[in-house]
């Protein structure tokens, strides 16, 4: 029996996409030596749920439609996901390598460098997410029994282990010093770029996404019964992460760049914030009613979020080149316009390319990335 359509999945995709653009625009804003710390916090701290929440909704979407009492067709699953993720990943990676090689006059990478770039997702700065997603899909035979058997105590233990593992990977001085000091270039690359393919950094948020999908009736009852607590949890976790960021600036003398590279989604408060944001956005998009106009906007953003996610660095790059040629520095008002322009250009291109693909099926290769998974 088909499952009920959940608009929350689509809406969260859209909100997360806006957050990802905020992070990447914020990186450009930090080139301003007198960037506003509060605006940086908006772009770089408040948005830190954006990437990990994609793993949450990906797992939710998968497990919402899986019957755990039936055999899992692994080959069929990989075939479908390959078209949805692997093929777009390869096409967009090659697009950026060719385009950037021409635009910045660096040429196309040699075969060994190409293999490394594709394996680690380094063809463009946003593509590593798809590499992580591919690994999550490859390891689905591990996740299914784990989601089937895990309970509340198991989730709590996994949450604690997640915080401990992420803290070690991100902040253990001895480990990171060893990695940076390695002489073997191959081993060094595998450890240096571990955030790009080690699913262990996001295993908790993926598993709880699957768990809540399998137990959706109980999850929905929880959302209806505890809306105030969910909102308070989200607000407190956001305040905690922002407080950590400001404390690094005020008491440790960190630069804004150093602070955002410390108060990120893998720090302990960041893991808590990701969990809180996942439950919060699912709650408000499931239990609250919105005007039709806002629903259409949220649906539009969610429906085109995949293509926007893939294409937005293209527009950021060209707009930054124009600003640099004009000698324009991104001040606070300008960066807000820059952000809005990035969203509008990326979204307009997604709508245009989708319409072309629908009218000309033979051009489907050009439209890779504009489709979203089956509605959930």
Give a short overview.
The protein has 376 residues and is mainly alpha-helical. Helices cover 74% and strands 0% of the residues.
List keywords for this structure.
18 helices; 376 residues; mainly alpha; globular
Describe, in plain words, how this protein is organized in 3D.
The protein has 376 residues and is mostly helical. Helix content is 74%, strand content 0%. The protein is built from 18 helices and no strands. The longest helix has 30 residues, at 74-103.
Blueprint of the fold:
Blueprint: H1 7-29, H2 37-44, H3 50-65, H4 74-103, H5 111-120, H6 128-138, H7 140-149, H8 152-171, H9 173-180, H10 185-192, H11 203-214, H12 216-225, H13 227-251, H14 256-260, H15 268-287, H16 292-303, H17 305-326, H18 332-359
């Amino acid at each position: 029996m088909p499952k009920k359509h959940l608009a929350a999945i689509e809406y969260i995709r859209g909100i997360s996409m806006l957050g990802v653009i905020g992070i990447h625009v914020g990186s450009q804003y930090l080139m301003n030596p007198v960037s506003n710390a509060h605006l940086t916090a908006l772009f770089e701290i408040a948005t830190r749920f954006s990437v990990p929440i994609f793993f949450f909704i990906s797992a939710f979407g998968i497990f919402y439609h899986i019957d755990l009492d039936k055999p899992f067709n692994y080959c069929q699953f990989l075939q479908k996901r390959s078209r949805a993720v692997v093929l777009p990943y390869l096409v967009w990676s090659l697009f950026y390598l060719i385009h950037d090689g021409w635009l910045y006059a660096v040429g196309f990478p040699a075969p060994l460098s190409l293999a490394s770039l594709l394996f680690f997702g380094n063809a463009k700065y946003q593509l590593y997410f798809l590499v992580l997603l591919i690994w999550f899909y490859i390891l689905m035979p591990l996740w299914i029994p784990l989601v089937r058997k895990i309970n509340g105590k198991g989730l709590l233990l996994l949450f604690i282990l997640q915080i401990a593992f992420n803290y070690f990977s991100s902040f253990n001085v001895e480990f990171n010093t060893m990695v940076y000091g390695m002489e073997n270039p191959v081993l060094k690359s595998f450890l240096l770029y571990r955030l790009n393919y080690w699913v262990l950094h996001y295993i908790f948020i993926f598993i709880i996404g699957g768990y809540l999908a399998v137990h959706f009736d109980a999850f929905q009852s929880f959302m209806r019964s505890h809306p105030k607590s969910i909102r308070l949890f989200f607000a407190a976790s956001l305040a905690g992460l922002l407080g950590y960021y400001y404390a690094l600036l005020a008491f440790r003398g960190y630069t804004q760049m150093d602070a955002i590279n410390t108060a990120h989604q893998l720090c302990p408060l960041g893991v808590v914030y990701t969990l809180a944001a996942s439950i919060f956005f699912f709650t408000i998009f499931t239990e609250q009613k919105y005007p039709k106009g806002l629903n259409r906007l949220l649906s539009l953003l969610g429906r085109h979020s995949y293509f926007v996610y893939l294409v937005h660095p293209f527009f950021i790059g060209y707009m930054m080149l124009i600003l640099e040629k004009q000698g324009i520095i991104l001040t606070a008002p300008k960066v807000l316009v820059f952000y809005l322009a990035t969203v509008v250009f990326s979204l307009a291109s997604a709508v245009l390319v989708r319409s072309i693909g629908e009218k000309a099926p033979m051009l489907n290769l050009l439209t890779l990335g504009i489709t979203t998974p089956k509605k959930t």
